[in-house]
Amino acid sequence: MKTKQRASAGPARVSARSVESLVRPSVLQLHPYVPGEQPRIKGLVKLNTNENPYPPSPRVLEAVRAAVDQRLRLYPNPAADALRERLAALHGCAPENILVGNGSDELLALVTRAFVEPVSAFFRSRPSRTGQPALTRPRPARTTVQYFSPSYSLYPVLADIHGGWRNPARLNPDFSLPSLKELKLGKTWEFEAALTLVTTPNAPSGRGYSTAELDELCQAQLGVVLLDEAYVDFADENALSLALRHPHVLVARTFSKAYSLCFQRVGYCVGPEPLVSAMHRIRDSYNVNGLGQVAALATLDDLPYYRANFKRVIATREHVSAELREFGFEVVPSQTNFILVRPPRFPAQEWLERLRAKAILVRWWADPLVRDFLRISVGTENEMAQLLRVVKTLLSKS
Ligand SMILES: *Cc1c(COP(=O)(O)O)cnc(C)c1O
Fold it and tell me: To test ligand 1's pocket by mutation, which of 257, 265, 287, 363 has the most ligand atoms within 8 angstroms of CB?
């Protein structure tokens, strides 16, 4: 093979300077999703990305190890059929009601692509300063990606990547869900939106929403509603029944958080067959890696192990919430494996730095809606005891 680059015959037609013009303007303008850090600091108490502090079941580790052999050269099952069958049995539906994804993040991208028209399909548009397309005539609701803020910060990014129209709606100041009456009064909510994404229980607030209020919201929507239940195993209620009952409602779940499987990237979506099959049509042929399928199947074989973990995480969450309230923190009641807190004494960003100096990493956002808060993932009992000790020291020194 020749490795030496041959000098080109003449001047290149695309110069290094003009090459950026080959990138879509909307991509150049995009503010990409910012994942939480994954630093490699020894002894760090990592409470910033809502990973489960407990390892996967020993049976899962064993199943993955046993699958690592010469079969790695083969393609995996293209639609994760065995896993879909198991999930269907678990949820009391048909495999046709289930789609497995490369994490639930992939499912969120797929619903955007399957159900939302890019604005550019209707308008000759150039991006405006806000990054939204500049509009020249009324914009159809078919282009709208709607969500509450604050909620999962990936949603606006997915809308922007796809060229959809972002329609964020503020949650109430206590992070509860606005009622239908409030949404109507607010005038900006679109009941015809092509896609409405609801993080339930909510992130980053941790608040839970009742199935009754979610049902009411779903019934008022004319487009697709996806209930993103990434943290639902730590909650009192889940809304899966809505996806089995309504023709336009999907529920997304993930093995990442509750099932200690972030590394393997497996999520799934439950819903009416016509919507699920639309997503199947546009997914990559082998969207779920083989070891991920093995790990997820083994997970479903050992659910009691995980249920014990949920109980433990919930007990730790309640204990830490009570202790932090004693220290003067405002703690949003949580139905998840993290808590959103408004710390006393110093600004939240300063708490982030001071905790980090003591090898405790939590999450903070500059977004005005949550800038006064820290999000703290629930770690092991020991990790949380360490957090409480450091908090106490920081408060007594100031
Ligand atoms: C973590 C998270 C996801 C993504 O989970 P993956 O399955 O790991 O892609 C989706 N939605 C919310 C709200 C999350 O917090």
Answer: 257
